[in-house]
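Quick note —
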Amino acid sequence: MAALAAGGRLMACMLIVDGENSQRRALSAGLSVEGFEVAFAASFQDALRILGSSPVDVAMIDLMMPDLNGLELARHIRRAFPRVRVVLSSAYHLSARQVERADCGAVAFVPKPYKVGEICRFLRSKTSVHSPASC
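Predicted structure written out below.
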């Protein structure tokens, strides 16, 4: 569920699902620099392909997707990939209560615009790494 980084430490494998190319690339670059193994998807189908072929610890999903909303993807991940932790993201703020009521299995909500340092600290607190694998 995690990749082995230089120096022998384990790092989490992240999947970023966002319809906006600039958002995916910026967050991917920031997380990679901070030691996360990162994959990214632009759509529901891309995300399912990656989840089906690579171990993923955390999926960070934008609520506004081009082909299906992020809540539906989060619900699908909860059913099909129950070990993957889901973090929702959007420019529109959601309270913890709203995320809970969405009943999608999300562990948290992170608002845009992203602050990579804060996201890294948050993700490390939500990610437990058990065994080495490749993202």
